[in-house]
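Reminder: ligand-aware prediction takes two inputs, not one.
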Amino acid sequence: MSARRDMILSPEDFDVIAKLAYRESGLQLVREKSSMIQSRLRHRVNALGLDDFHHYTKLVCSEAGRPEVRHMISALTTNVSHFFREEHHFRILEEKIVPGLNKKMKSGERVRIWSAGCSNGQEGYSIAMTLLKSIPDLHSFDVKILGTDIDPKVVAFARQAKYPERLITGVPQDLLNLYFEESTESGDRVFTAGDSLRKLLSFNELNLLAKWPMKHEFDVIFCRNVVIYFDLETQNALWPRFRQALSRDGYMFLGHSERINDHQHVGFITDGPTTYRPSAKN
Ligand SMILES: C[S@@+](CC[C@H](N)C(=O)[O-])C[C@H]1O[C@@H](n2cnc3c(N)ncnc32)[C@H](O)[C@@H]1O
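Here is what comes back for the chain with S-adenosylmethionine:
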């Protein structure tokens, strides 16, 4: 069947899809973005061989359409990321946090870092490079970086860790030489994270709105450029959960346009640009 580019997502179908996306993932889809949503979902309608968006809407609202909801959410998420994005956080990590983590791991304790909403893995691998730069014998200790995302496609990509040239920007040449292997695929340069990075990371699918299965506290949580897609109610429900997941002397980073609403109330103090720590009394 040939791809149909003339299909229109009606305002009624948009509303149904927006409600479903909100319920399933917290994503807030606004009417002004309707044409973007339409183009993101068009390939799903075509892939399923459906006639129009109305049939698609009916499918995702039905029991038989449950598996498609995952694809729908995957198509609706914005996965833009890059290595060492918002570089100031990596400076804080290196200068303020790593010395304490170093001490902790060398005294035999575990160190855990979470990239929540990790997209294609650039954030997690940037964290790993920052740690390795300062602690070359990092692999001798109990250190793990977890990357999670609702979108199974990016989780699979992050696990594969194979970045085309356009996605590797941001990695300084010396780190690229040290931690990535370069190859050529169909004439294009490709950079694959080497074992020293990969050993430190694991990636899993996780919807932040669902139950979090992790048992241990995190020393550092990066949740950057994720809650910006959520409304205030969804954000407010997440902050106490992040506080709970963070160790008493931990750090949490948000994206540049994100804030913890009423942070003192949920047990955080600010400690740098979009940088939070648990307050002492909590
Ligand atoms: C713009 S990317 C941010 C990537 C990275 N943290 C950064 O700052 O570059 C946002 C990511 O959040 C994920 N996301 C959106 N809703 C989510 C949810 N409910 N649970 C988990 N991840 C979610 C998306 O799939 C997407 O990969």
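The chain has a mean pLDDT of 96. The first helix runs from residue 11 to 25. We will return to this case in the review session.
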